[in-house]
Amino acid sequence: VVRYQGGPNAGHTVVAKGTTYRLHLIPSGILHGKACVIGNGVVIDPGSLIKEIDGLEAQGHQVDGVLHISDAAHLIMPYHVTLDQAQEALRGENRIGTTGRGIGPAYADKTARAGIRVADLLDEQLFRQRLKEQLEHVNHLLMQVYHLPPLNEEEIAETYLSHAERLRPFVTDTSIVINEALKGGKYVVFEGAQGTMLDLDHGTYPFVTSSSPTAGGACIGAGVGPTHIDYVIGVAKAYTSRVGDGPFPTELLDDTGVWIREKGREYGTTTGRPRRCGWLDTVVLRHAVRVSGLDALAMVHLDTLGGLETVRVAAAYEYEGQILTEMPRNVRVLSQCRPVYEDLPGWDDETMKGVTTFEDLPPEAKAYVARVEELVGVPVHLLSIGPDRSQTIVRQDIFAAAGRRRLG
Question: What is the pTM of this model?
Fold first, then answer.
């Protein structure tokens, strides 16, 4: 299982055998003893990663020999965190809504060819040299522009070099690890960390993250060729949610929105911030299908909508008298779009308890899924009706489908 972009700004809450895990950098396959890779496209906060490793080991999960960290991944440095928070504060009402974890500045340094990579960290002489060069520039910026105190070079060096020894056994050229697995006939799952609408190119720019969570980002962020991608699954909730700022046409600012948030436990895994919630937006889903080439959807949180008398689906937008079936690029236009809803009958919460097959779902829930499939244009192959893995309904064996495509 390969994580190919993002950083500790992402959070995956996974419930396995009744135990809740909150993962930020390590792929969820670690809970099942699968080989897990943090790819070159990820930005890593070493302290955060070590804390995650220690937490998993304390819960009885093996990490040594299972986790592989790319030597080409870039590091999040303390000055990235400081700059992230300072820049966001300076934006005021025009803030993007970042997590303040230094993700954007780390990717900015990477693009500016001023970043520090994991491989650099393992070479003390090179690391100290790169750190000194960067702090000369960054401390000037902190003092002269943001009126903040300078950061101490030696303190950072000592902390990060101690992290280096803890992480050294895990570091390797992960592109080789992945490609050898593919050559050996193994299945490889590439795991994104954010949604399509946060994609740097294809999301609601500038209210986006600093990497490419869409499917195409897997190739660059993991070091594999596009010919190795056999099947693409989009993960979507049965409603729409968002953390951070940016246009959100179907957002519910009423009691129903609060009800969905509380029932769906919609609070950020990383920040704890309440997520903004609204009805399912199939305009966004169609956009995601197109830009990632989705073969199918995994629809999660279907159970959250149980208990509503009516459920709504946005089939299109209305803007200045025009009906839009595709998402506009202009965020000003998008912020003024009004959803064109279809109303569907809801279903009773109790009728979903203990259900293990799609056929046994309430007729209204099945009709909801079928209508989403029609509007989006791809099938729903997985459904979750609860947080535990045992509450996942499999309608199509994804690995079998991927294998058939691989064999032609």
Answer: 0.91
- Partnered with residue 280 across adjacent β-strands are 313
Q: Which residues pair with 297 in a beta bridge?
A: 234, 380
Separation CA 100–CA 80 (nearest Å)? 9
Q: Which residue has the tokens 């080991």?
A: 57
Nearest Cα residue to 174 out of 13, 27, 52: 27
How many angstroms separate the CA atoms of 43 and 99, rounded? 14
Tell how many helices (H) and how many strands (E) occur in the chain: 13, 19
Q: How far is CA 62 from the centre of its chain?
A: 24
The DSSP secondary-structure symbol of 264 reads T
The predicted pLDDT at position 402 comes to 74
Q: To the nearest 5 percent, what fractions of the chain are helix, strand and coil? A: 40, 20, 40
CA–CA gap between residue 352 and residue 385 (Å, rounded): 7
Structure tokens at 8: 């500790």
pLDDT reading at 187 higher than 70? yes
pLDDT in tens, 256-312: 999 999 999 888 766 678 899 999 999 999 999 999 999 999 999 999 999 999 999
**Token duo for residue 178:** 């992945």
CB 215 within 8 A of CB 293: yes
Question: For residue 294, which amino acid is it?
Answer: L
Burial-class residue 155 by CB neighbours within 10 Å (0-12, 13-18, 19+): exposed
* Closest-CA residue to 373 (of 264, 310, 294): 294
Give the integer Cα–Cα distance in Å for 49 and 8.
Answer: 8
Contacts 24+ apart (CB under 8 A), 169-172: 169/64, 170/63, 170/64, 170/67, 170/68, 170/69, 171/69, 171/70, 171/71, 171/118, 171/119, 171/122, 172/68, 172/69, 172/70, 172/71
| DSSP symbol at 117 | B
Query: Do 267 and 274 meet the contact criterion of CB atoms below 8 Å apart?
Result: yes
